[in-house]
Amino acid sequence: MAWTAPMTAxxxxxxxxxxxxxxxxxxxxxxxxxKATTAGxxxxxxxxxxxxxxxxETAAISTSQTTTSVTYTDLSTVGPSVTITTGPAAIVWASCxxxxxxxxxxxHMSFAVSGxxxxxxxxxxxxxxxxxxxxxxxxxxxxxxxxxTPGSNTFTMQYRVSGNTGTFANRSITVMSL
Length: 178
Hints:
The protein is 9% helix and 49% strand. It is mainly β. A hairpin with a 2-residue loop joins strand 1 (42-47) and strand 2 (50-54). The chain is rod-shaped, with a radius of gyration of 23 Å.
């Protein structure tokens, strides 16, 4: 169904069943409460007078793991990752405990997208931590909005270092489709 412009009521004129269904019932069926099918979801506009229910998905891995890769890579336990049906964009929240074992070296955390959209993990949307001292660490995160091809997309966190050994733990990613 699509929203239809309301009709103008005229005094002493009978509303027909067809008019009621077209201008009242069908328009009420286009509201967020009428379209809601699953608890915990949000609604976004998909065009003029049009809304769609969208999921919010999250995943986490607590395992502490390391990498010495200077290019984005998976850790021994890949991810975390979420697969979600998206519209043309999504907001991604990612966070982790991040460390580098050498002063002056940096550790980076980003995400890749696969499925309907292919986006490689990069420093454009990434968290970068510069170790001020050996084994310096912090808990941090970032938010990014990405443009996508609508459809099923998988968001997977990936990691790299500028040198030495980076450690990543308590990793989490949340994706909200727009």
